[in-house]
Amino acid sequence: MHGVHADEATLTAAQRGDVVAFNALIEAHQRQVFNICYRTLGNAEDAADATQDALLSAFRGISSFNGSAAGLKAWLLRIAVNACYDQLRRRQRRPTESLDAPHDDDTATTADRLQDPRPSPEQQSLGAETARHIQEAIDRLSHEQRMTVVLCDVQGLSYEEAAEAMDCELGTVKSRLSRARAQLRVQLVEKGELPARSARLQERNP
Amino acid sequence: MTHASQHLDDEVLSALVDEQLSPNESAAAVEHLAACVDCSERLEGFRSVAALMRRLPEVDLPRDILLGPRLVVDPPNVVRLRRWYTATRAAAASLAAVFVLLSAGTLYIDSRPAASAPAAEVARPQVLSAPSDANANPPQPAVAQRAAVPQASPAAPAPALAPASGAAARPASAPQPDDQIAATTSVRPLPTPPPTPMPTAAPVIPAPIRQVALADDPAAPIRTSAVVAGLLAVLALLATFVVRHRLRHHTTHP
User: Fold this and answer.
1) Span B28-33, average pLDDT
2) Which of A1, A108, B140, B213 is spaced 20 to 30 Å from A139 by Cα?
């Protein structure tokens, strides 16, 4: 209860232009925002740009946010999704770089430092090679499909949350997700990350 | 429900992985799956993709992403505008200062020879030297000395002195300040009188005063610089206004 009141007070302060209060509000979400951007855009540099754009427009728009502090996350995710789409569109206008060679080790630039953010310790179980293959597969999906699969599968959002973040119908989430998964499966089988046939079913039907 | 029921859509299978089917849909799907190996395998395919995606590691924020208050307050374009505003404002201020200093310098140099002469004498050098110096430094003296010489319009004396040059004409007036005042004041109503005393006086040039006339030249570069500084100051001021306008626009309508 106390925490809720504190959140509302922080929100009110942020809406009056208090930057510190705003930072406090988004602190809990900026990691998720960055991760959505990172998986959707495929590299840390673009993800950093998109995250920054998202947080800036969130700050500019927070005075017109009329939900409660509890609804802030959904609102922020929607802004993040739009920032990602903007970044994807921008990249389409100046293509080549990140899409075709997302993990080119030859270029030792300042982006290099950003290129491989460290995974959190608790989740290092997935091999780097596999993670790279998955990311490459995601990068081949359409903008909407990759956004959906990132929100639902990578981030584990519910269909409802994803629909709200992408500002679309629940049915749209369903169909985008199924198409995205179907395509991912083909690619991941090609890369040897998934078996061509389910082992369990193969046992049953020799 | 029979064995022959249609194969399940990708959408249904995918939703089944997430348990997002209605109870009815779910029951129908499960029944079909029990009898259909193909669909079971496809379901397994969706399930494995979803499971693999879920294992993608979270990444840490690069340190430079964490927003400092400054970054949040000022988006990049505003930061840039603010920088421009400071720069143009500083430029306008310093150019204006330079202009004032140089103008003061010119004024001082111009007034020095006439220090011992009456007030009207201060006006004379400007007016008389106008024809000869006109090309070198046209507008500046007007700005710098308008206050001191409100009525010294260059047009009036110029024709009278054209052949004689400023150096020749000025000394004539120096010994007779009273006549000189009369001359300047009478220029407008009566253009004819001034020419007569000037040429006649011209031959009688005291040497020290001629030097004073020559000393007008050193002031010329300063005067030119003052003009340039003044113009640049105006330009910088205009730029400042433009930048400030845009800055205000960006900060009030983000």
Assistant:
1) 94
2) A108
* Residue range(s) in chain A whose domain bears CATH number 1.10.10.10: 127-206
d(CA B126, CA B169): 12
Task: Answer for the pair B163, B128: CB distance below 8 angstroms, yes or no.
Answer: no
Instruction: At A145, list the tokens.
Output: 């499909």
Asked if A60 lies within 8 A of B37 by C-beta distance, the reply is: no
Q: Which residue of B has its CA nearest to A45?
A: B62
Across the A/B interface, how many CB contacts are shorter than 8 Å? 133
In chain B, the percentage of residues whose pLDDT exceeds 90 is 35
Kindly report the CATH number that applies to the domain delimited by A127-206: 1.10.10.10
Above 80 in pLDDT, residue B236? yes
Within 13 Å and on the Cβ side, how many CA atoms surround A128? 7
Q: A119 - beta bridge partners?
A: B59
Q: Which residues contact A70 (CB under 8 A, 6 or more apart)?
A: A4, A7
**CATH for A1-116 (3.20.20.110, 3.40.190.10, 1.10.1740.10, 1.10.357.10):** 1.10.1740.10
Chain B positions touching chain A (beta carbons under 8 Å): 9-11, 13-15, 18, 20, 37, 40-41, 44-46, 48-50, 52-62, 64-67, 69, 71-73, 75, 254
pLDDT at B151 over 80: no
